Amino acid sequence: MLLIDQLPNMKYLKIYATTPESEPQNISLKREAVDGKKYYNHVVNTATWSEDNGFEGTLIYSNNSLVDGWAVAQIILQHTKKLIPLVAVNPVYVRPYTLAKRIATLAFMYKRRVDINWIAGGFKGDLVSLGNDIPHDERYENLCDYAIMINGLLKAKGLFSHEGKYYKVTNIKMRPQIPEEMIPVELISGTSEAGLAAAEKLGATKVKYAKPLSEYKGVEPDTNFDLGVRFGIIARDTSEEAWDIANERFPDDMKGKMAHTMATKASDSSWHKELSNLEKREAKEVYWLKPFHTYKTFCPYLVGSHQEVAEELAGYVKLGHTSVILDIMNDEQDFIHCKKTFLLVESMLESTLKKYML
Length: 358
Hints:
single chain; alpha/beta; two-stranded antiparallel ribbon; 12 helices; globular
């Protein structure tokens, strides 16, 4: 069995776990419903495992059916020393001044940074139910205006005014003020032209749902090494052990396939449609879409031995993806095996990563 204290911490890659959901989001997912106290304890456990394994932070989901992400962020801050909550933020849920106040308040009380994963919303049903029916590309315009105002509020030393297309404040003084090092690091998910343009405008790390490496032939790497990518990972000492676990966790599920098809039709998300349209992969290739196609999760998986998965990950890192957001993991062993895999990636690419990142 791997022990945490046998492994050094990562030097170059930023790895984010994902905090468990307060209730299953996928109708085919066979998880027991949990009460509030059990969920609280689950959040604390996964945050502790993330920090113990040297992860940068942990993503907190946001949508209509989940508990408030900022309450979850506060739990994480209370029970860890340096793990960074990465809260998914959609403008539809909270006014910009209120959000800036929350960020500043947490920084003031805990002397800790909370980062933001900007999202525009990919499932229109959630948005329409809240009175937001603006088109896909315009949602990113709204998001930029929202984010620019929040950044301005947090960075202003005196009176602040903002007059954008969607949001406006006049001569407001933000309190409490926070030091520059506690201004959130920003990530943004999306592969559409509108999403990528928003990331450029905000200077945010672009997080992608990666295609197989074969799809990137001829693509020039981002030598700034500031891209993000999202994966689930199941890695073990041998490929056979990893695939046994993978197939046990994600069995064939016709009901899930039908749910995925319906979700794809209902979504206007570019990345969701891109992954859905990929051709079926050969059995036991490292890059695996079965959990996505059976509506168990919303990202590709990498499955295999530590060495096999590390070699696959190294290909994505070479393209500039040095921030990785992992899918929800089952237990502490998943965290430890992921850490071992990423340490192998760093070892493979140390000379390159050291040159560009230190």
